[in-house]
Amino acid sequence: MTARYEETTARVEYAAPISLDMARIAGPLEARLATRGARFDVIGTTQDDELQFISGSLIVTLRRCATDASSLRVAAASLVGAGHPRSMAAARFAACTAVVRQLLALRQADRVVWKHKGRTYVTAEQMETEIEPQRVRRAMRQLPEVTDMPRAALPAPRAKVALSGEGAEDGERAMRDLRRELGASPASPERDPARLGAWGEKVALYALNALLVAICAPVGAGMMVYSLLRGGSVTVSARAMGITGAGIGFSSLAAAPALAQITVPATQGLTAALDTLAPVGSLIASLF
Predict the structure, then answer these.
(1) Do residues 181 and 201 both lie within one domain?
(2) pTM of the full predicted structure?
(3) Which segments of the chain are extended strands (E)?
(4) Which residue segment(s) compose the domain that 175 sits in?
């Protein structure tokens, strides 16, 4: 058959060579096919080796096997697009089954090999129907070896979720679930060593500024109180405080490296502690 046809076949195998009169069996086969709802316009034989039933949508053929005298071949073919694929497949299988049952009524066969919708089935006496596994075509291109695969960790994918609107809560919940499933990736921005170093420097700078404010505040307050007690004005006291603060700031530039050396180890320890508590915090956040 050409590619315009879909086909269901059955090969009936006997223990000995089979002799069958095609013209004589045409009548009983037509009657059995009619019980399955099949009506044919043309019925004919070819040199007593082939019997065909032809209609507008279905062609049923019974022929002797050219290479094996002890086998008969039954085929039911339908035009592609002649009807619904599922109903046409059922009609082909019903017609093929009707012909095989008629042949088995005339003479018992050893086994029947069916091919229907890309699968092969084998039936035999005192044996359940077996399904032969389909052969899988292997790709010609060789797959890369495991050792050739990249070993570097890939960044965790970012899910596109709605941050506002009706689905905001669902989007945030999906993001939390995704982070919990993927876990912390070594290459993610949250675990980048460069980012951690910059964050530690920021903490050290903030600590240095806070320390300078703590040192300057009592000095400035004392100078303001002293100036007001001696009858000075607020404007003069403010100017004096500004000049004093600028002087302390310039004088502290020389001591800044030593102060940074003291504060950086403390901030590094704080960073390590926060890294240790980060999984616990993410776990608690995922629960909400």
Answers:
(1) no
(2) 0.44
(3) 5-13, 42-46, 50-54, 58-64, 71-79, 111-116, 119-124, 127-132
(4) 159-188
